[in-house]
Design a protein that fits this description.
Layout (H helix, E strand, L loop, with lengths): L25 H4 L7 E5 L5 H9 L4 E6 L2 H7 L2 H4 L5 E5 L2 H11 L5 E7 L17 H10 L5 E6 L2 H13 L3 E3 L15 H8 L5 E7 L3
Parallel strand pairs: 1-2, 1-4, 2-3, 4-5
Antiparallel strand pairs: 5-7, 6-7
Helix pairs in contact: 5-6
Length: 212
């Protein structure tokens, strides 16, 4: 497989990414569009959801990524691996998530993962981080009751910010008071494997949607 080289960081606030993607025909994409859906926001190269889709054929998986070359490469995998429960979509989550969630069958969104998002360390760039309050509100609106949101990062500042934003919303309840010691998804991302190989810490938290 050819190596796709892309910029590591893409500014979601730049003009070229201020579009709202047209939601696809979910019935044409998935073998059964009413299966529980796992949404991976910022899926990168897409290997995490590829492995998840192979292990959980009874669920659908959707990877959203702003770097189009990565999506183009990953989009070959569902056919290559014979998967009718996996789809990748090039979009800017900050502009397109609302339209995508509104187009899904009601109640199918069961799991959301946000793993090792771009940290955007400089203060003036932090508005580019993916988990903005508007995204939290959308997840609270469309996630099924008892649905889960899993976050993780190797950057403590980023993990704390994501944790605090979910903590502040009444729809979400954290499952543990402290950071999770292991990944409850059981399948690690490439970034996670790299961080752990250096024995560096990973900050993880799992949330469930509760009645409000």
């Amino acid at each position: 497989m050819a190596i796709v080289r892309v910029r590591e960081h893409v500014n979601p606030l730049s003009k070229k990414y201020q579009f709202v993607v047209d939601p696809p025909d979910w019935a044409a994409i998935y073998g059964d569009r009413d299966r529980p859906l796992h949404l991976d926001i910022g899926c990168g190269k897409g290997r995490f959801v590829l492995e998840m889709a192979q292990h959980h054929r009874d669920r659908n998986f959707l990877g959203l990524e702003i770097r189009e070359p990565l999506v183009e490469q990953a989009s070959e995998w569902p056919a290559e691996f014979g998967l009718d429960n996996l789809f990748y979509l090039f979009c800017n989550v900050n502009t397109s998530l609302a339209a995508l969630l509104r187009s899904l069958p009601a109640g199918v969104l069961q799991t959301v993962t946000i793993q090792f998002p771009d940290p955007w360390f400089k203060r003036r760039h932090q508005k580019r981080r993916v988990l903005q309050p508007e995204i939290v509100a959308l997840l609270a609106e469309f996630l099924a009751p008892q649905g889960e949101v899993f976050i993780q990062s190797d950057v403590a500042e980023v993990a704390v910010e994501m944790r605090d934003r979910l903590d502040e919303h009444p729809a979400f309840q954290r499952t543990t008071a402290d950071w999770l010691p292991t990944n409850p998804m059981a399948i690690a991302t490439e970034r996670e494997l790299l961080v752990l190989s250096f024995n560096d810490p990973v900050y993880r938290a799992l949330y469930r949607k509760v009645p409000t």
